Amino acid sequence: MSPFAVPVEIYHAGLIFMRVGAMVMLMPALGDQAVPPMARLAFALLLALCLGPIAAPYLPPIPVTLGELVGQGFKELFIGVMIGLLLQILTLALAVCGETVAIQTTLAFAQTANPSEAQPGSSISSFLSVMAIALIFATDLHHMFLAAMARSYALFQPAKALPLMDAAALAVRTFGQAFALGLQLAAPVVVFSVVFNVAIGLVGRMMPHFQVFFVATPLHVLFGLSVFALSLGAVGLVWLDRYQVFLPS
Are 21 and 41 in contact (CB under 8 A)? Predict the structure, then answer.
């Protein structure tokens, strides 16, 4: 940039900040509710300055009319929101896994504050959300988020039309993949719960006077959490692998 920014440079900086700011406000870890909004916007501003030389060849000239100027700004906001939501949707797999495990282990009513959301959730789901944030930074997965911002200008050029239908289809497909992945991650606990309930039902039929509920409930919670603890490492590795496969695509 020149010592005194000309109007076209100010316009390009605003376009970059709109897209990057929308992505930073929504992406996993960096866009969590626990991070102050002003800190996220300050980081987005610094990141927009760093991405300026990369995005410069793809940025359009200043529009002639006010309508085109506003429309270009909304287009950049839409692209940023779309990419940020897609990155956020796949993290819902761990939330689905946590809620499924909580229901199967009768711990769904154990609610606690979730740092990544504005409302409380089950304790297991909140634990998996914190684990996801730790895994993102421990494995440098956030570097791929920053790379996705840079690549977005080559894939979604500001001068081209918005891919609304493609974005909607991709969002629906990603949401379905996240829900299916969450159920797959919770499969060990689900299988144990089905086998345990069938066994308890048979015991109740064979011994009608036996207090099945008072005996089975503590064992259900203990063994269910034990199975979940044994599969926790595989849950984190599978989720990271699926996330890393999804990002380059």
Answer: yes
Average pLDDT over residues 188-212: 84
Indicate the residue type of 104.
Q
CA torsion angle 154 169 130 99 (round to 10): -170
Nearest to 84 by CA among 176, 152, 34, 136: 152
| Alpha carbon distance 148, 208 (integer Å) | 61
Q: Please tell me the distance from the alpha carbon of residue 86 to that of residue 166, in angstroms, as a whole number.
A: 12
Tokens of 106: 């009768």
The Cα 94–Cα 181 span in angstroms is 8
Q: Which two tokens stand for residue 81?
A: 């929101």
Q: Report the pLDDT value the prediction gives residue 5, as an integer from 0 to 100.
A: 59
Top-confidence range, 150-154, 157-161, 211-215: 150-154
* DSSP for 237-249, written as a single string: HHHHHHHHHHTT-
Q: Tokens 């990544």 map to which residue? A: 116
